[in-house]
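Lab notebook, design round three. We kept the backbone fixed and only want residue identities now. Task for the bench partner: fill in a sequence for the structure below.
Input structure tokens:
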């Protein structure tokens, strides 16, 4: 087992797939190097910006043609992963493909077809650990995505490892997590003790394990609001405008800059187009941001019946949030909308509602022509183009409504939290000393590391590999329903099983020969066939006839796939035969036709050696099997080895070769001339033409070391 452990996660979103590579010290090495404080911390995960790669479009676009997802999509991602994971560690490296919003809206049958193809392609072309497709390749719900994000945020901010330095009061030291994409929005936080007890059945039980093996348990509330992402909210907003003025051809839109004309799906109207000629309704920007705030408020749907009090948005239950101890960080759209245009990205600067709203009102009050000129001059930086500027006013209004009227985040700069404590002066000053102790702060990176839910998934996985101390009760790492009195609920999800290192023999020469490049296999076979043909041609005519005669006598002269026909041609001339038998072939159909660390790690001098693949040998992976945990079980046990060899289908079985006498001539042919009889014996055992071998697809164009 090497010094480093690696993990690969493919984040399959709606617009594209991004591969993330992480690594951490194996448990024995980490424990040997750890200080007393580090033994009480989670494993240190490392990554590098060069280890990520994103390609477009998303996997959901392959719903109608799942067989294309391998060569057209996964090929590039897997090749990138194999470039950065040491060759000798590939069989020990788990791979996960977790799909989110885009795949959730795909019909179930198409979902299954795409996921199945992803798993089969990855197993066929790489040796990454992929023992359980249902666990390693899946569409995750929004709640799981939110939980992983909560883990990543608290891991980077230090909420897990240094609780004393992040004391928010009342024994609370973790941060809340907010995420917003195009289609949905998520919230995850640990309620205060009173709310946690009151709403215990609504919480998720999360269990981690420190480097020293100590269990770490948290109870988190997670929910997702479908249709509350910025793009879906915009669609609902435009539909509300159309419903309010069904016969109007020009509809005023206060959420667009003054003078901007767009179609109902947000495309700018060009002069001379059919839309310009009055053949369809259009939206005309008026740039009135206060009115925009007023019109987007109903989209929160706070008037829906709340069946389980309390509720925030859309009638969905959320325990009461104590903003005195629950401090939230927001990622994705929360960051982009507050920081891409307005420079508020100072690390010690909290989200200031008063300042932000003033800047948005000033921006949206400009005419569209003025905004266009300022965009061309890069007034707001290189990342702000016309599309970003066009969408900003709606997005800002939606974010402000969600945060303050929806979730209830105090308006920093205007509202007060307790008594006469002003959040602008007190909270921001605290944030400078301890960091992120304001009610809300938008973040993108913490210590140059992106806050990504994929990091949370890998933290959970690395934690699950740490063996518990022998003298302690074994509590499985993972998450599931919070059922009072139940140690491991029935729906408890393991992050991937226990680590079983690869221990293949050095005598597995065939694994070294083809390594991680299956395209070498057909090339090798063709090379052998060429050598055989050359040798056959050079052995002389008489010897060829002798060898051919023996082969035909061995296998028979007929074929059950068609009727024997006689014809002369190139094969006859090539082998010196007067006539060559030809067979009609019947093919069977089938489906098969700047490196940085996230925390302290003593890399040591052998770090480079661990990354080197020189002299490494690859054999069969042991793989992992996912333990099945049932209610009441404490020790999940040791999972059995995963043996890829059991999945190998024997090639070439059932080719229809009959016994040697299957085609013997049943008629006595006595009385013929000896010359004729000799010729019959020569030709009676002609070998049938083999059908053309199926083309071996190798989706990975090339593997780079």
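Proposed sequence:
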């Amino acid at each position: 087992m090497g010094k480093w452990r690696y993990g690969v996660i493919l984040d399959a979103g709606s617009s594209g797939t991004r591969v993330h590579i992480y690594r951490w010290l194996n448990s024995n090495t980490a424990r040997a190097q750890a200080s007393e404080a580090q033994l009480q911390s989670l494993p240190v995960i490392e990554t590098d910006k060069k280890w990520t790669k994103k390609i477009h479009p998303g996997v959901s676009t392959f719903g109608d043609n799942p067989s294309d997802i391998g060569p057209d999509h996964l090929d590039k991602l897997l090749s990138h992963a194999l470039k950065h994971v040491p060759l000798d560690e590939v069989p020990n490296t788990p791979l996960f493909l977790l799909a989110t919003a885009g795949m959730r809206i795909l019909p179930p049958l198409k979902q299954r077809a795409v996921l199945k193809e992803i798993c089969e392609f990855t197993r066929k072309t790489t040796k990454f650990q992929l023992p359980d497709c249902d666990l390693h390749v899946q569409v995750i719900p929004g709640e799981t995505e939110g939980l992983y994000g909560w883990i990543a945020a608290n891991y980077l901010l230090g909420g897990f490892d240094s609780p004393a330095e992040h004391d928010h009061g009342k024994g609370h030291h973790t941060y809340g997590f907010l995420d917003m994409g195009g289609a949905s929005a998520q919230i995850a936080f640990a309620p205060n003790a009173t709310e946690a007890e009151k709403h215990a059945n609504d919480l998720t039980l999360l269990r981690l394990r420190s480097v020293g093996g100590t269990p770490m348990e948290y109870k988190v509330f997670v929910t997702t609001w479908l249709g509350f992402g910025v793009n879906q909210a915009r669609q609902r907003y435009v539909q509300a405008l159309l419903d309010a003025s069904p016969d109007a051809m020009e509809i005023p839109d206060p959420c667009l800059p003054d003078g901007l004309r767009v179609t109902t799906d947000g495309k700018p109207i060009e002069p001379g187009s059919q839309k310009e000629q009055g053949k369809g309704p259009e939206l005309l920007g008026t740039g009135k941001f206060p009115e925009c705030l007023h019109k987007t408020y109903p989209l929160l749907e706070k008037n829906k019946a709340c069946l389980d009090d309390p509720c925030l948005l859309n009638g969905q239950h959320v325990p009461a949030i104590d903003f005195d101890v629950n401090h939230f960080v927001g990622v994705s759209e929360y960051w982009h909308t507050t920081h891409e245009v307005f420079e508020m990205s100072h690390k010690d600067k909290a989200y200031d509602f008063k300042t932000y709203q003033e800047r948005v009102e000033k921006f949206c009050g400009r005419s569209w022509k003025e905004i266009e000129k300022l965009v061309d001059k890069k007034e707001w930086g290189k990342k702000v183009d016309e599309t970003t500027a066009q969408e900003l006013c709606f997005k800002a209004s939606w974010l402000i409504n969600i945060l303050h009227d929806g979730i209830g985040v105090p308006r920093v700069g205007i509202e007060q939290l307790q008594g006469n404590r002003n959040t602008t002066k007190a909270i921001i000053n605290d944030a400078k000393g301890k960091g992120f102790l304001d009610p809300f702060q938008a973040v993108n990176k913490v210590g140059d590391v992106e806050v990504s839910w994929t990091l949370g998934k890998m933290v959970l996985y690395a934690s699950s590999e740490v063996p518990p101390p022998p003298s302690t009760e074994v509590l499985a790492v993972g998450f599931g329903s919070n059922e009072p009195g139940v140690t491991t609920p029935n729906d408890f999800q393991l992050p991937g099983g226990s680590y079983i290192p690869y221990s293949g023999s050095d005598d597995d020469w065939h694994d070294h020969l083809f390594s991680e490049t299956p395209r070498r296999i057909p090339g090798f076979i063709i090379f052998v066939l060429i050598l055989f043909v050359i040798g056959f041609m050079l052995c002389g005519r008489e010897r060829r006839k002798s060898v051919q005669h023996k082969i035909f006598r061995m296998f028979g002269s007929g074929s059950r796939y068609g009727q024997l026909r006689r014809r002369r041609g190139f094969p006859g001339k090539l082998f010196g035969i007067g006539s060559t038998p030809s067979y009609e072939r019947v093919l069977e159909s089938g489906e098969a036709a700047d490196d940085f660390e996230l925390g302290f790690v003593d890399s040591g001098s052998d770090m480079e050696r661990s990354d080197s693949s020189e002299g490494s040998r690859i054999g069969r992976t042991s793989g992992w099997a996912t333990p099945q945990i049932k209610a009441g079980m404490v020790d999940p046990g040791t999972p059995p080895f995963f043996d890829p060899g059991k999945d190998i289908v024997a090639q070439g079985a059932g080719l229809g070769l009959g016994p040697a006498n299957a085609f013997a001539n049943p008629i006595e042919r006595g009385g013929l001339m000896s010359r004729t009889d000799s010729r019959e014996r020569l030709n009676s055992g002609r070998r049938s033409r083999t059908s053309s071998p199926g083309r071996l697809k190798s989706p990975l164009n090339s593997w780079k070391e």
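Keep this in mind before ordering anything: Confidence is low (pLDDT under 50) at residues 344-348, 416-435, 502-519, 557-705.
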